[in-house]
Predict the structure.
Amino acid sequence: MIYLDNAATTYPKPECVYKVLDNANRNAFNAGRGEYDESRKAFEIIEDTRKKVASFVDCDFNRVIFTSSATESLNMIINGISIEKGDYVYISPFEHNAVVRPLKNLQKKIDFEIVILPFNKKTWEPIIDKIKSDFAVNRPKAVFVSHVSNVTGFQVPYEEIFGLSSKYNSINVLDCAQSYGILNPNIENTNYVVFAGHKSLYASFGIAGFIKLKDDDLIETKFGGTGSDSLNPNMPSKMPYKYESGSANIVAISGLNTSIDWLKENDIYRHELDLTDYLIKELILLEKVHMYLPDNKKVFGIVSLSIEGYDSNDVGQILSDEFGICVRSGYHCAPYIHDFIDSIKYNGTVRISLNFFNTKEEIDSLINAMRTF
């Protein structure tokens, strides 16, 4: 099997992560639920992992809130930032349904506007003059931008957008599910950074979170036991525990703790960037292949394409059945980008997504398979 679906989840994980996950499954205990050594050790692992997550953006580790997924994180943020009737919320055309669907669901209850930020369809750059005008007329309550598009690998230029929206005290949310730990963001003018353990951080499913970088109010939307202050019927007021209830996933957190150490020992960024460049150079030579790239071809780790005369899902099926190559085809849980890149006529795109364990030889095998279409 040649696995090229790393935007869905990185595979394989580093061997050191598998070993820690196995040991934690056998020997880990519930954190903060007992005065015995094993419970205290679990708590210490969680706090140490917070520090390691925070180190990528150099922030206070108490601002790191753990959740089960980036989707849960975004739900907590969207439902906690007090969007009110008449507010304007802006999103980029590259957003995942983890942003779009919670906003649409909230819109059923509260009459606010969701506006797609204007981007140039040729260069994929934000149309800054139009954004300035839109913000001046309809002040942004919140702005959501993906750091790296899960469909195209495009590194979305969010900094200027957040710089503009911050002048209106907007709540700026950066979805780093595809990038955190490898391609780390500039957090100036950013209120929240969302991360997913099982993707760019090379950990397992079941651990993700968000970093609350500012002191804006975020209403708790998840309630329950925290292992402390148990006579208090309300959630504790202290960060990060006011947003974390229920037993922490110590198994997955242990894996994340180890995967971060591994990330810092290896140049994941350079390897993925080199593979991405090599993939694009090889695909350009195939006449029937159309890649979805901005003019400057600035994408990272992900390349989306279509093949003339084929539905994207048929391409994915053929690559799997005939060549043992795993890619993702279709719409990739991103509802607006396919109109932006004009891929609906192919029923979405064929997405090739890379990781540290992929090789040029695997890309050569993919190219040889593509030549048969």
In short: The longest helix spans residues 37-55. The chain has two domains: 2-12+267-370, 15-264. Residues 275 and 348 are 23 Å apart (CA to CA).
